[in-house]
């Protein structure tokens, strides 16, 4: 065998080994859950997080409840969490008994953001108290005339039960009382803002990222619900997940 052939074979083997080592290094983690975590931290910094950790992230945004169900079923490695997991468990099991158990699930904090309440930009009502917001979202106040606006019905827009931002509002602002059953229900947080931006008599909520993309909406000043964000694992996180938690928390620290 000539020296040229040996050199060529050696180079080919080296390239093959290098490719295999890269594949092994870029382990994939499956992640699903809260839009608030994905939109505020993970997706805007996905490339940087993958670079920092050497991981490939396969991300599905489907809400806290679905993320926890995926985690419990072993479909994903990590669930993105935007509400206390016991609150989410209680909400889902109230609707469908036995649908979720959070036993053995651990949550690592990765950041915190604010939830603001929004109305359509054309609505003359631009100020509401915490008590008025509570009465609107629980269905006690149903007309804008009762809070200084026009004699028109209020359209409450909210996520489906089990989604993290909604669960935080129910727990923190509404004292555990559920959002009115007359609300228009959306399957994503971003859709809440989009509907409020299109419907003149609507009211909803969102974080900075979803409000920015909602269009013609105005935030109600002075009332905000703090939302803790986390990554959940079934049992203690392994080495790869620890890398993900550390990197996500690093970028989460800059988000408000």
Strand content: 15-25%
What is the CA-atom radius of gyration, in angstroms? 23 Å
User: Which class of the largest domain in CATH terms?
Assistant: Alpha Beta
CATH topology of the largest domain: D-Maltodextrin-Binding Protein, domain 2
Using the alpha-carbon principal axes, give the shape: globular
Question: Could you state the CATH homologous superfamily of the largest domain?
Answer: Periplasmic binding protein-like II
Query: How many beta-strand runs?
Result: 8
User: Which regions contain 5 or more consecutive residues with pLDDT less than 50?
Assistant: 3-24
State the secondary-structure class.
Answer: alpha/beta
Q: Per CATH, which architecture of the largest domain?
A: 3-Layer(aba) Sandwich
Task: State the end-to-end distance.
Answer: 65 Å
What's the helical proportion of residues?
40-55%
Tell me the series of helices and strands, N- to C-terminal.
Answer: HEHHEHEHEHEHEHEHEH
Number of folding domains?
2
Provide the spatial order of strands within the biggest beta sheet: 2-1-3-8-4-7-5-6
Q: How many helices in DSSP terms?
A: 10
Mean pLDDT: 90
The biggest sheet, with number of strands, parallel, antiparallel or mixed sense and barrel status, is:
8 strands, mixed
Could you explain how this protein is built, in words?
- The structure is a single chain.
- With 256 residues, this protein is α/β, with parallel strands linked by helices.
- It has 2 domains: 27-112 and 229-252, Periplasmic binding protein-like II (D-Maltodextrin-Binding Protein, domain 2, 3-Layer(aba) Sandwich), CATH 3.40.190.10; 114-227, D-Maltodextrin-Binding Protein, domain 2 (3-Layer(aba) Sandwich), CATH 3.40.190.10.
- It is built from 10 helices and 8 strands.
- The chain has an 8-stranded mixed sheet with strand order 2-1-3-8-4-7-5-6, sandwiched between helices.
- Helix 3 crosses helix 10.
- Mean pLDDT is 90; it is low at 3-24.
């Amino acid at each position: 065998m000539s020296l040229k052939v040996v050199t060529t074979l050696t180079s080919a083997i080296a390239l093959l080994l290098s490719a295999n080592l890269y594949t092994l290094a870029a382990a994939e983690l499956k992640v699903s859950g809260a839009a608030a975590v994905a939109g505020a931290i993970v997706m805007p910094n996905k490339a940087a997080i993958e670079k920092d950790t050497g991981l490939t992230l396969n991300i599905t945004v489907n809400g806290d409840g679905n993320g926890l169900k995926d985690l419990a079923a072993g479909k994903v490695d990590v669930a993105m969490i935007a509400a206390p997991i016991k609150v989410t468990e209680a909400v889902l099991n109230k609707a469908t008994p036995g649908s979720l158990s959070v036993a053995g699930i651990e949550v690592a904090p990765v950041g915190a953001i604010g939830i603001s309440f929004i109305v359509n930009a054309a609505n003359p009502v631009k100020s509401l108290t915490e008590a008025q917001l509570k009465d609107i979202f629980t269905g006690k106040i149903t007309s804008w005339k009762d809070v200084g606006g026009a004699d028109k019905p209020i359209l409450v827009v909210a996520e489906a039960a089990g989604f993290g931002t909604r669960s935080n509002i129910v727990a923190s602002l509404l004292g555990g009382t559920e959002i009115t059953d007359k609300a228009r229900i959306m399957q994503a947080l971003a859709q809440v803002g989009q509907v409020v931006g299109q419907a003149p008599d609507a009211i909803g909520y969102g974080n900075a990222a979803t409000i920015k993309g909602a269009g013609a909406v105005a935030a109600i000043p002075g009332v905000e619900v703090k939302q803790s964000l986390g990554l959940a694992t079934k049992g203690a996180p392994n080495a790869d997940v620890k890398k993900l938690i550390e990197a996500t928390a690093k970028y989460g620290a800059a988000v408000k």
